[in-house]
């Protein structure tokens, strides 16, 4: 259960970074605010971490895929 909670939390963090980048894209640029690429880069790193965690979970048996339909 903890494993799935971590995956969901990382997904929510990824969506948060996506919307932060969207807000920065629509604002006027200020020299003191962080760039949009900071949040897009975080989103990319989090998505790679999610894929790696899913692969580890599948290989160790923490999560099981759906059975075959036939």
Give the helix tally. Answer: 2
Cα-to-Cα separation, first versus last residue:
28 Å
Radius of gyration based on Cα positions: 17 Å
Biggest beta sheet attributes? none
Helix content: over 70%
| Count of strand segments | 0
Described by its quaternary structure, the protein is single chain
The dominant shape is elongated
State the domain count: 1
Order of helices and strands: HH
Structural class: mainly alpha
Strand content: under 5%
Question: Residue ranges: pLDDT <50 for 5 or more in a row?
Answer: none
Mean pLDDT: 90
Q: Could you walk me through the main structural features you see in this protein, from its secondary elements to its overall organization?
A:
This protein has helices at residues 2-26, 36-60. The protein is mainly α. The chain has one domain (2-26, 35-60). The two termini are 28 Å apart. The model has no long low-confidence stretch (mean pLDDT 90).
């Amino acid at each position: 259960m903890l494993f799935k909670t971590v995956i969901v939390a990382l997904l929510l963090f990824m969506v948060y970074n996506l919307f932060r980048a969207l807000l920065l894209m629509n604002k006027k640029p200020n020299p003191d605010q962080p760039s949009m690429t900071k949040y897009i880069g975080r989103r990319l790193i989090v998505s790679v971490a999610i894929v790696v965690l899913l692969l580890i979970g599948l290989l160790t048996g923490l999560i099981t895929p759906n059975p075959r339909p036939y």
